[in-house]
Amino acid sequence: MRGCSEDELIEICQTIGLKRFRAIQLFQWAQQKAVRSWDDMKNIGKSDRQTLSTRLHLYALKKVREQRSNDGTRKYLFCLEDGETIECVLMDYARTKSRDRHTVCVSTQVGCPVGCAFCATGLEGFRRNLSVAEIVGQVLDITYYVRQEDPDFQVTNIVFMGMGEPLLNYDSVLKSIQLLNDAQGLNIGMRRMTISTSGVVPKIIQLAEDNPQVGLAISLHAARDEIRNSLVPMNRRYPLNQLMRACQEYTHITHRRITFEVALTAENARREEAEALARLLKGQLGHVNLIPVNPVAGTGMERPDQEKMKKFAQVLVDAGISVSSREERGTDIDAACGQLRRQWEGELK
Known about the structure:
This protein has helices at 6-15, 20-32, 46-55, 120-123, 132-147, 170-181, 201-210, 225-231, 240-254, 271-281, 306-318, 339-348; strands spanning 62-68, 74-79, 85-93, 101-105, 109-111, 126-129, 157-160, 193-197, 215-219, 258-264, 286-292, 323-325. It is an alpha/beta fold. Helix 1 (6-15) crosses helix 2, helix 7 (201-210) packs parallel to helix 9 and helix 10 (271-281) runs parallel beside helix 11.
C-alpha cells in the first residue's frame, strides 16, 4: 500500500468493495501519518480494516538495528520481506530557530552494481532493485520511529544517495518522489529532494525532462578518465566527455545547478588533480562538494588531512569554481553507505 498513489488506492478500494473515501483516508494514514499497522487507522471501521488486511499489503519495514551518533545522526538497518537488508540515515541540521532541517538518505537498491572503489556497498555486490514501497517505506518508518519521541517531527529533505544507483532503478525512484511530494502525504518539496548518480548519462537527460524540479548530484570523484575508470566503473561505459555533455544538457533544460561530489583520498588530494577538476568544470553551472573518503575496511584508502583539503579547495576557488567541504555526520557510527549492513552480515556468518 505504501507504494500506491491515491488514485491507485481508489481503484483498489472499489475493486474490493470499499467506498472511495476510504482510499483517501488510507493514503493519509500511510503517507502523512506514517502508521505501521491497520489498527492504528482509527477512523476506519473494524470490518473494513479486516477486509484491507486480507486484500492489501501495508508493508512496514522491520527495524533490525539503529545506531545514534553523538552529533544526532541516526542510522537504521531495515530487513525486507525476502530477508535482504538495506540502510538509511537521518541527519539533523540546525537551520533556524523556527525550523531545523531533517534529511533522510535513502537507499534505492539492495547492494549496488556500480562497485565504486571507496564504497562499502559495492563490496557486497548487487542483489536487486527496491520497490516503490521499500523506498518510500524508509522515510515513513524513520518518521514513525522519531515521532514516538517527537510527535511534531517532519522530514524536510531527501537525498537518494544511500545504497545503490538511483538512476538504475529510475521508474521506482521517480514514483517514490511523487508520493513523498504529495500534499496529502509528507508534502516534501521537489526542490528539497536530490538524486545522486555515478553518471548514468541517458537517465540524466531523461530526468531533466521528466522532473526538472528535483536536484541532481554527480558522484564525480576524478577529473581524468584514467583515474575515474578505477574509482567509478560506470565511467568505462559513460566517460567524462559524455557525462559532462549530459550535465550541460541538464542545466540547459532545468536551469538548475548540479552538485559534483568529489571524495578525496590521501593519494588524490593533489594540486594537479584540483587543476584538472577546475578545467573540467569550467563553464558548467555547478558546485563542488569535497568529501574526505570514508574509512572503509577493504578499500585500502586513507583520508587526506585538513591542510590538503584546504589547498585542494583553494585551487578551485582561485579558478572561480564554487566549492564547499561536506559537514561530516555520523562518522562514529559508520554512517557511510553499506557499512552497517556489511557489519551485520559479517556477524551472521
